[in-house]
Specification:
Elements lengths: L7 E4 L7 H9 L4 E3 L4 H4 L1 H9 L7 E6 L1 E4 L2 E4 L3 H15 L5 E5 L2 H4 L6 H17 L6 E5 L18 E5 L6 H13 L7 E4 L10 H4 L15 H8 L8 E5 L3 H9 L7 H17 L3
Parallel strand pairs: 1-2, 1-10, 2-3, 3-6, 6-7, 7-8, 8-9, 9-10
Antiparallel strand pairs: 4-5
Helix pairs in contact: 4-6
């Protein structure tokens, strides 16, 4: 068994929640587990407790609140009472208090809130801040697929999260990367307090990874790493994050990703890539 490595978080989005991937993760030193109330058809917490309840104490477990069952599958809400209830139910369903609870994609509801969006964000963050004080979770954060609507809303009235999770990787656009940086700076978050997610844009087997060679972003040509490994390693710099949540049901794939951390990223190449992304973004119509 390898020693713990907090830089890789096993994400359970689209996962089958099989016990074998959890045991393999522990063997690889992956001791952080990320799920959400709405994963696996709102059954993720129950399935984890039933199939791997004895393993959960070995993980740092994070989950998310913000999506709720609805007639069409799922609806989003930042209603303080519903969020508070969801945090309590997460602890009950998991059989333990989560180490971290994220406010899940708050921008989903904020886009509809109009001039009251700052008050809505502040109230939602306050719920999670209070839940932490009450011991319903050890810490709280914000997970945002599109941080653009959030960057202008941060002020002293909005409690500061312990962790921010944003999209990371070579397929993230310039506007999203810049918005993430703005939010990171506004909350004065250290690199270890920022997580990346979806480093492959949804699939490590997508055709794009056979068309481009991400090893260009690594020193010495990647040192024998594969294209997929190089893409994962580069995600830690787009934007700069301390950990990356990645989903897989295949132990071999997870092992390869852990192995990619030995690669060294060429920061100059990353900065040039971001400059090219910004130039391209400015040339596109709004």
């Amino acid at each position: 068994m390898r020693g713990p490595d907090p830089r890789v978080v096993l994400g359970l989005h689209r996962s089958r929640h099989e016990r074998r991937i959890l045991t393999e993760a522990l063997d690889l030193g992956v001791t952080s587990l990320d799920t959400s109330t709405n994963y696996l058809g709102f059954r993720s917490h129950h399935i984890l407790a039933r199939t791997a309840g004895d393993l959960l104490p070995k993980f740092t477990v994070s989950t998310k609140v913000g999506y709720f069952p609805a007639p069409d599958g799922a609806g989003h809400s930042l209603d303080p009472m519903r969020l508070n209830s969801a945090v309590g139910e997460a602890a009950k369903d998991l059989g333990r208090e989560p180490d971290l609870v994220f406010l899940h994609n708050p921008e989903h509801s904020l886009r509809k809130a109009g001039p009251h969006d700052k008050d809505l964000l502040a109230a939602a963050c306050t719920v999670l801040d209070d839940a932490t004080e009450k011991g319903l979770c050890a810490a709280w954060g914000v997970a945002s697929w599109d941080p653009s609507p959030l960057s202008s809303l941060v002020d002293p009235a909005v409690p500061r999260p312990s962790v921010l999770m944003v999209r990371a990787g070579l397929l993230v656009g310039a506007r999203t990367l810049d918005a993430a940086d703005t939010l990171i700076n506004a909350w004065n978050l250290a690199r270890g307090e920022v997580w990346g997610m979806s480093p492959f844009g949804g699939s490590a087997s997508a055709s794009v990874w056979g068309s481009v060679d991400p090893r260009l972003f690594l020193r010495d040509g990647g040192g024998g790493l594969s294209r997929v490994q190089a893409a994962f390693r580069a995600a830690y710099h787009l934007p700069r994050v301390g950990s990356v949540a990645v989903g897989t049901d295949e132990p071999t794939h997870l092992g390869a990703l852990v192995g990619s951390l030995a690669g060294q990223v060429d920061e100059r190449t990353v900065q040039e890539y971001r400059r090219l992304l910004r130039d391209r973004s400015r040339d596109q119509p709004a």
